[in-house]
Structure formats: C-alpha cells, structure tokens
Amino acid sequence: MELEDYSHCTLCPRECGVDRTTGGVGFCGETATCRVSSSGPHFGEEPSFSGTRGSGTIFFTGCSSHCFFCQNHQISNENLGQDVTDDELLAIGRSLAAAGVHNLNFVTPDHFWPHIEALCRALRDEGVEVPFLFNSSGYQRPDMIERYAQWIDIFMPDFKFADPDLAERCMGDRRYPELALESLRRMVDAKGFLDPWDPSGRRPAKRGVLVRHLILPGEVENSLAVLRMLRQEFGKLLPLSVMSQFHPVPACREGGELDRCISAEEHGQVRELVLELEFLHVYMQTMDHTMEFLPDFRKDQPFEGNRRGD
User: Any idea of the CA torsion for 62, 65, 68, 69, to the nearest 10 degrees?
Assistant: First the structure.
C-alpha cells in the first residue's frame, strides 16, 4: 500500500498537511497507522443494508468532522481503537464477507482511504463480490468522490447541516453545507439512487446513494432547511433516512448545548415536511426507538442490539 497520501495529508476538507507517516497526528486524530475500533455483522443500519444477515461494519477510529455531539464520540473524538496491519485489515474484510453479510460497511473511512482502497482492491482481486459501502459524515472533499467511486458501490453520507452557523458551532467549519451538497451531487452522478429500494430488507441494496439526517434538539429549522435543500436539488426520489435517535453525550451536558433528546413536536414538524415534500423513498425513525444501538465501544460487542444473533 502506498503511504504517499499520508505524507502531507489533504484527504479531508481540513487539508491539515500533517506528515502522518512519521507519527504526526492529523486533524482526524490519527497517524498513518490504520486503527479500527470494532467490526462485525451489524443489524442497526436501515433494512436496505442490514437485511437478514447484517451489514459488515468496520468502524475506523478518528474523524475529520469532530461534531461535539457525535453518537460515536468514543471513537470519533476520543480515538478509542486498535492498530491493525494491512494483513489484519484484509483478514477482517475476508471474514465478514465469508460470514455472508450483505455489504462491507466502511464507517468514517475518508481519513484512512488509502488503506481502504488497498483493501477493496485486494478483495476484488480475490473474487469477493459483496458491495462496498462508504458510510460517512458527508464532510468530504468533492474532488475525492471520483476516486472513492472507483471501488465504492453504495454511498451513505450524512447531511447534517444546512445552516453554516450551526455547522461552525458543532464541528468548526461553516463550509459544511456547500461541501456536503457538492459531494452528494458527485456521489449521485457516480452511482445513482439506492437500488434496489426495498425497505423490507428482503432485497438488500447493491448500489447507489441514500442520505441520512439526524434531527437535533432545538434545531428543527436546520432539519427543515436540509429537507428543502435536498428536495430542490435531487427531487422526491432521493432515498432518505431521517433519524430521531439523538441522545446527548457527555460533551453536550458539559457544554450545556444539545443536552436533551428531541421532542415529539420537533419530530412531528420534520415528519410533516417529509410528507409535504412528497419524498417517496424514506426511512422515518419513530420516537419509540430503543437504545439497543447506542454504542459503547469499550465493550467487545458495542451494540446490544447485535446480540440477538449471539
């Protein structure tokens, strides 16, 4: 695997230029040593990805977004994880594919893209045909999408913020809306919308794009603006997953911001606009979801909901 991309790192929009090959730590919090916090079949994704046998998730340590409210804060902001060699990463991918998962789901992959690119190449060379899924914050360099798309079959980006001020408060870059929108345009151009669309999970997705949006407490206008922006840009056939599962993490309570769950009224406002805008392919998380997929990455099995198959 070539380490050149890490020597003056510009893999993410921060473009911090750190030499990660000599132990320098990028804005993502990581060096050029690949680190993984968890891997295994995961049943907490949308049915299009989890299906009946699970999504083969590989959670990479670190993140270039650093949203203070991140539900995966232990790995994204606190950098909990283990070093893995190229051979160990390949073994993880092989094992998941052999287990019959519906996809290999690379979670927060952009800052370790050279490793993932090499993994994808090696697996395809070995005849592994499972779809590769890019599961991201939406905070990507648009000019990287073409490179990702050479190997990635499915893109599942977040679209967190339409409000630049909110983006600045939460992750320190008011450019998020414009970068996320242009990256999403390129993802859709490269792969189209999610195919097949089967919310029953009986026919898991093989290709295409689905966009996630997490409703934030007290910021319902941001959610409404995101929906309007996506509808205007991509039309009513854009597949969406609108999530109500926000749970305040320690940084929320410490900072006194986003320190509660969303209300039924906030959920209702967002749901009403989804219907008004006539989006046709939508996962709309209910208010009565369980906490079984709120992770604790200190455990061997971070997600209680995945224990159903133990």
Answer: -90
